[in-house]
């Protein structure tokens, strides 16, 4: 992210919550069992990593601890994603915008070979902090690769290598909603080239009952919040422009939005958008 000026720094503090005194049971379980962190040390460990992550990249999902919500775990296809990956050792899962790689680690805990899982993010320092959060630098076999999705094939390897192999599951949570609609289309076109026929793109992001461009994290920029209709329209256009075809399923709900009234990022139209986008052609 570009240099942070004083007014940006003040804005970012709006979504920097006070240190936590407890974490949710799912992430506690992951940190205690996968990472072998002593129960008494879990909260202070998380608080320290959150502070360092926010200094590297002041995203709301880091400042407000949303990265502790293992959302892939709540996706209706979670169990079938595990089976898909376990039943075929060539099946590949990409976690685009993986941040610390929390959902990827949950898959490993749930029995998916880590060598089939790849974390992708534009911010190498966040993926690096993921090794510290989960204390698995020497054990996890997943690759964590710095990519800028907007560069697509122009960035050469390893992106071109990923496209050549293809992916069966692409997890993209809290990712598309960072960008205005035109850039979401650009990103979707790049992603469309990596997903194998029959493959899926799954995730959750900020949605809205009134789809529109809204002010984004960086002052003066916008990001588009979808409902299911605008999401389906976007993928229909992506399909037409790329010679592919997609089926969009999902739901808008209020999970995780209880604090929306005092939240600096959401408004009364905000909803959680949970989606599955299947490549049918
Ligand atoms: C809001 S965070 C979401 C992290 C995680 N998926 C989650 O649900 O908690 C968005 C992530 O996308 C990454 N990102 C932003 N722009 C990107 C780009 N152009 N290419 C790849 N990753 C990008 C950010 O660095 C950040 O880690």
From TrEMBL:
Pathway: Secondary metabolite biosynthesis. Transmembrane segments: none annotated. Coiled coil: none annotated. Residues 94-202 form the Methyltransferase type domain. It comes from the Eukaryota. The keyword NAD does not apply. Gene3D superfamilies: Vaccinia Virus protein VP39. Pfam families: Methyltransf_11. InterPro entries: Meroterpenoid_MTases, Methyltransf_11, SAM-dependent_MTases_sf. The keyword Transferase applies. Keywords: S-adenosyl-L-methionine, Transferase. One of its GO terms (molecular function) is S-adenosylmethionine-dependent methyltransferase activity. Belongs to the class I-like SAM-binding methyltransferase superfamily. This is Methyltransferase type 11 domain-containing protein.
